[in-house]
Amino acid sequence: MAQLFSLGCLADIMFSSFKKLFSTEPARETVTIKGGQMFAWRSGIRFQAIEDSEIILPGEIVRVDEQIGSIIEADDEAEIGFHKRPDGSFDRIILRLKAGHTATLHRGSQALLGGDVTERVFYVSSAA
Fold first, then answer.
1. Element holding 19 (H helix, E strand)
2. How do strand 53-58 and strand 90-97 relate by DSSP bridges?
3. pLDDT over 90 (residue 128)
4. Once rounded to an integer, what is the mean pLDDT over residues 106-110?
5. Model's pTM, two decimal places?
6. C-alpha distances in angstroms, 41 versus 65, 91, 110?
């Protein structure tokens, strides 16, 4: 038995097909970060890892009596590690992102691409 389509349904299917064929996804802004080189991560900027990545932040980004989540917003699956000084304050914060994970800083800081990599590319956007 043949399937029957209404003229409107057929038009929707054709339009959808043409739209997929001729439309392009808007270009996403990227940034390339070199391994071992300091870079400025401005407040409110969201990075999305294209590849597994490690970013090192100075411990001073989190002040006394602050929650780290109020400064660094990251996907639940992202890993955040710490190196502490003998006095208990943070020396550095290590943020590990898997491909597709995002992270946003709510306080601008210098940062460093960690790990044994030459460079990484991230999608970058405003966290507005």
1. helix 7-22
2. antiparallel
3. no
4. 95
5. 0.75
6. 23, 18, 6
Half-sphere exposure (CA, 13 Å, Cβ side) for 4? 2
Decide: helix, strand or coil at residue 22.
Answer: helix
DSSP letter assigned to residue 117: -
What is the rounded CA–CA span in Å between residue 126 and residue 22? Answer: 28
Q: How far is CA 67 from the centre of its chain?
A: 20
Distance between CA 113 and CA 128 in Å, rounded? 24
Neighbours of 3 (CB within 10 A): 4
How far is C-alpha 66 from the chain's CA centre?
23
Residue 24, pLDDT above cutoff 90: no
pLDDT digits (tens, 9 = 90+) for 25-63: 568 899 999 998 899 999 999 999 999 999 999 999 988
**Residue 66, CA distances (Å) to 62, 70, 71, 100 in order:** 6, 7, 8, 27
Nearest to 94 by CA among 107, 75, 78: 78
Beta pairing partners, 85: none
Radius of gyration of the chain (CA): 22
